[in-house]
């Protein structure tokens, strides 16, 4: 929350585009690697329409980003017109977003994956439109696969551990910084995503099932967490328990890791001219622990602040940004995964992102976090889960004790109902 307050205090330092005509909008453009490509798209719309768009650079961590939005909405602030929204947020802030039902033509909405559209509805109202989607992937070094005699990426977590250890031991003879596997182990929403993949892949469920029942207290879930903890200080550095997406990507892209769990955006950055592993990266489905391999559904969407004084212009902006031309540009330039189904047959998109085609089923079958059944309490559920997982990763707890205590904590959060 301190980070959220800090960024609110700094909101006066928004970076404005150079256009000065018509309506002036302020857009939440995220942060980090996606900020500039978002800004480019918004400024293209501004140039086309004669309007002005100012960019708000939100906190990098999703938890802090959400805090900023919630504080603004609680204050009924009109400072930011357009929000970028995590796929899990409609139930948390959707009641203070403009209802887009009948404001966006049905043909435009129907071009997107149906499941993502449904995730952007709250009580039957469409509160955001899909912008880009996400699913967890396993990245690996193709050159080191060949060097160490491997013909295919690991299909199980046990295989990953074996392969990562062999390559790590070999590479550390010349590079002491080399590690086998990096992922998101920091106590935040990113760890919830990683750990949900572990649970599902071991047959341990989704924390809370679709009916709202707390299911996390089971032996398979405990085994999944203990397995992940076994990676720390063996095939993963001790510091992995503090890593977010960019920490993991920095290590992998600098040539210091064999495997990495991350989102599709990391592909284009790994192929950039300043990447030490350019041309030596593969992407595959995440491994299985005995159950079905799983990728957590991510992705971001665009909604309009109900307190915005320029809702008509804001609607035009989000329709442009979520449209096929802009989604195509973002896919080619930044590996942002489209939500428009037809773009998965676009040759320019597939040339830039060959794994979009081969891993299409990973994206379309991604596992949703339990934001639907837990509604407005999802944030508390996620925080309790990521804290329990981080405790196991750091050796403060064992898997079985952690899931048992977590179930008790979740029951307390649930109270008389979600």
Automatic annotation (TrEMBL):
CDD domains: PBP2_TMBP. It comes from the Bacteria. Keywords: Signal, Transport. The keyword Signal applies. Gene3D superfamilies: Periplasmic binding protein-like II (3.40.190.10). The keyword Signal applies. Residues 1-20 form the signal peptide. Belongs to the bacterial solute-binding protein 1 family. This is ABC transporter-binding protein.
